[in-house]
Amino acid sequence: MTSNDATSTTHSPLYANLLAETAKIGWSELERFFARGMLLRVARDLDLVSVAEAIASDDTAQVTQWLSSGLVERVQAEAAADFAARDPDLWAVVVSPWVCVQERS
Question: Which domain holds residue 23?
């Protein structure tokens, strides 16, 4: 292994697939997922696709850590109202039954 190998980031095929399925989306298209309690908000500090990959891979330890720290959470009514009022740039990826969403500035 060279030093370049150690510093380069390689992603799994699952990551690549999820990245390809990640898209910008408007709040109006996400409201129905919020209403069903299936919308997860991902903090800006995290890589949206890495979170989706952890959920899809059933990485319970990592997902639990994010949930416990509030970095990943179900979208609450206050956040939904804020999204509806501001209509910010949102990116989403589906990891059935969840939709992971992240606001981008």
Answer: 11-103
Q: Note if the pTM is more than 0.90.
A: no
Q: Kindly give the residue spans of alpha helices, DSSP state H, lying in 1-105.
A: 3-7, 13-21, 27-35, 48-56, 60-69, 77-86
Residue 98 maps to a domain: yes
Counting the structural domains of the chain, the total is 1
Show Cβ contacts of residue 25 under 8 Å, excluding neighbours closer than 6 positions: 90, 91, 92, 101
Tell me the residue length of the chain: 105
In a domain, 1, yes or no: no
Residue 42: exposure state from Cβ atoms within 10 A (0-12, 13-18, ≥19): buried
d(CA 28, CA 3): 47
pLDDT for 69-99, tens place per residue? 999 999 999 999 999 999 999 999 999 999 9
